[in-house]
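User: What would this chain look like folded?
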Amino acid sequence: MSALTTDLDLKVPVIAAPMAGGASTPALVAAASRAGGLGFLAAGYKTPQALSDQIDTVRAEGVSFGVNVFAPNPVPVDVDAYRAYTRSIQVDADRYGITLGDGEPVEDDDYFEDKIDLLLASPVPVVSFTFGFPTPGVIKALRAAGSLVVLTVTSEAEALLAVDAGADLLVVQSSAAGGHSGTLTPLQVPAETPITELIAQIRHRTSVPLLAAGGLATSADVAAALRAGADAAVVGTVLLRTEESGASAPHKAALADTSRGNTVVTRAFTGRPARALRNEFIDRYDARAPIGYPAIHHLTNPMRKAAVAQADPERMHLWAGTGYRHATEEPAGVVLSRLANL
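Assistant: Here's the prediction, encoded as structure tokens.
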């Protein structure tokens, strides 16, 4: 391992990805670190106070860990398209007695500045960003506070921009990853370049440590990413069914459902490209979904929460990477040790 990945306190080259929306619990983060890897709290969709509470919980466990933040990279939605989409999907929300939106899109930055203030006032070992890059001033301040700064990229061009921006490490995310793509250009769905090829391309252009992410679900996958030039592997979907995961019961059940087919990339739930298990909502609305994040996320959120409450997997986001069939119901430490081939 490189000096910088050694700074991550990795004993095994496997990292638990930050999964916003509840999956990345403090227990999962601590389990990953205890297994010799590293866990990340997901700051996305949390209030600053909720994030602070989770940081305190993990810190009390005495383990190294990271925090992932959504960097502002808004894609304003066309208001007419937003209203048309609202009318279209209302029929599905009617199942739960929910009225979606008031015709005006909600655009916000997920408390970005407040979360940066928190991380500067109470530094953590590692801070990573996805969806975009923070300003040079933010990167400099975090590094001065003692945090390693990790930027998420999905292409060689983005990687070079991240290096120029001052990243200590890069998460190189392939299109096989579950959940949202970290692409800097969400108007375009990233090319389906295999993670080993993407790592090899970027490794030829920079000596910055690379963390491979996307579709890594077996020890063979991890080994291949390391051979291609990655310093460590980042895994998410394969941890969703673990005992420590905070994924909902219907999400876990869908991942275990042998009748489910391949995953697809869709904007139907959030207006931003994300890989998920195909379901009725995607089949019905993917072609109609406007581009626009976070407006579409906020629009569909009440319906998705109601679907979870009623154990209806057909109207909730079932984020999953291409290796989802390898997700198992067992302790996270067991999964991570197996991936590290221990």
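The mean pLDDT is 95. If you want, I can go into more detail on any region.
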